[in-house]
Amino acid sequence: MAKALQLPIIDLASPDRISTANSIRQACIECGFFYLINYGVEQELLKQVFDESKRFFSLPLEEKMKLLHRETRGYTPLYAENLNPSSSSKGDSKESFYIGPLESISSHSNLNQWPSEEVLPSWRPTIESYYERVLTAGKKLISLIALALNLDEDFFEKVGAFNPPMPFLRLIHYPGELGLSDEEIFGASAHSDYGMITLLATDGVGGLQACLVCRDKSKQPLVWEDVDHINGALIVNIGDMTERWTNCLFRSTLHRVMSTGRERYSMAFFLNPSADCVVECLESCCSELTPPRFPPVRSGDYLGERFRLTYGS
Ligand SMILES: O=C(O)CCC(=O)C(=O)O
Ligand SMILES: [Fe+2]
């Protein structure tokens, strides 16, 4: 059995922003993962969102297929996705539902798909309410991340990251299938996330693992440790675009979800910069000795390419 990680706990409501920013800096350099508490979503709302998610995934397949994903919004069936494109496995044992930017934040919102009100009457308002609350938490956290990088707290707003933001909420259901003999089945195979940060809500069923020792993602062997659920906390991890901005000072850590034989639900909120925002090495993160490792990239182009590799289209 894998060892459980002792990750730092960050209190989003702490009035001491400087000391919180320092703790975030240490967590992002050492782990790329931390727990977030007091993030402004009541446990009751969280429970309602998990309940709505279960209702959706319990619908007959033909009902879910009516909302098959288009433009990264809607339903992705079991095995539709392979988060580790270099592996030859049949795909990940999970189904999911993506919600892109809402009408309240972007004109792209009309691309979203929703289950019909007759089938799931309280689905859309519940999900939208969670989406808005977790976006507020995410933006607050990004301002602390800017402080942690010795930047102005509105640095990421000023470079256009939220003009408008491109967050995606993903509801995930892992059926908990077990493989035959020694075949390994992944709920989500090893990957790093693409965006700035991910705020993940889990239901208490284990399976999530991170590889903290493998700073170099291509280095073998990978050592996996469990990321346990803590009641009342979100799990936050740094994504690849933040790694690019910080020239690998802040780590986008490899993680995966093992299939444990138990059904599991989670909700990942991927906070991505606006499509036109250019992600380029921060001045404070490079020098003659440590030149930028990545060329500047437009966020929309980067995300498009990563999705293309994941879905093989
Ligand atoms: O479900 C989880 O615990 C993690 C999901 C994940 O890593 C992802 O969707 O990127
Ligand atoms: Fe992930």
UniProtKB/TrEMBL annotation:
InterPro entries, A to Z: DIOX_N, IPNS-like_FE2OG_OXY, IPNS-like_sf, Oxoglu/Fe-dep_dioxygenase_dom
Domain Fe2OG dioxygenase residues, every copy: 164-273
MF terms (GO), sorted A to Z: dioxygenase activity; metal ion binding; oxidoreductase activity, acting on paired donors, with incorporation or reduction of molecular oxygen
Coiled-coil intervals: none
The keyword Cell wall biogenesis/degradation is annotated on this UniProt entry: no
PROSITE patterns: FE2OG_OXY
Keyword Transcription regulation found: no
Signal peptide: none
Sequence similarity: Belongs to the iron/ascorbate-dependent oxidoreductase family.
Protein name stated in the entry: Fe2OG dioxygenase domain-containing protein
Organism the protein comes from: Camellia sinensis
